[in-house]
Write a structure and sequence with these properties.
DUF6325; DUF1269 domain-containing protein
Length: 145
């Protein structure tokens, strides 16, 4: 990687049961990108057929309702997501579902991470805690308190 400030890079696999995508989440993705909060490195879509077959979907295939122009993401590819990654994402899907696979940079954190690196520190781990787990832990803490 060059000397440009980079924020932590993460990924999301978002399943759409029954392959029903409304586009609402993608509107928010556009807004996050336009505000500079994140930078989309890769955006891909996969589908798992009822028979378990996994296939990639072209972004153009998803833009049928006229409400959201997904062309803004067409070509959003750093080539960091490969066929194996998409197959892996498809493996976790329920048959008959589709998923968006997003690889993104947390631009908001780039200055913070760069400052840490300049001081000799390195980011060695990151992760997400599912919201259901947070709610469960907060409920348990409230019940115990």
């Amino acid at each position: 990687m060059d000397e440009v400030e980079w924020g932590p890079v993460g990924y999301l696999v978002v399943e759409y049961p029954g392959a029903k995508m409304t586009g609402e989440g993608l509107r928010e993705l556009v807004a996050l990108t336009e505000r500079g909060t994140i930078r989309v490195l890769d955006l891909a879509f996969v589908m798992k057929g009822e028979d378990g077959t996994i296939s990639a979907l072209a972004i153009a295939d998803l833009d049928g309702d006229g409400e959201l122009d997904l062309a803004v993401f067409e070509g959003a590819s750093s080539d960091l997501l490969g066929e194996d990654d998409l197959r892996e994402a498809g493996d976790v899907l329920t048959p008959g579902s589709a998923a968006a696979v997003l690889l993104y940079e947390n631009r908001w954190a780039a200055p913070f991470v760069s400052a840490l690196r300049r001081s000799g520190a390195e980011l060695v781990a990151a992760g997400f805690i599912p919201l259901d787990d947070i709610a469960e832990a907060l409920d348990a803490a409230e019940a115990a308190g």
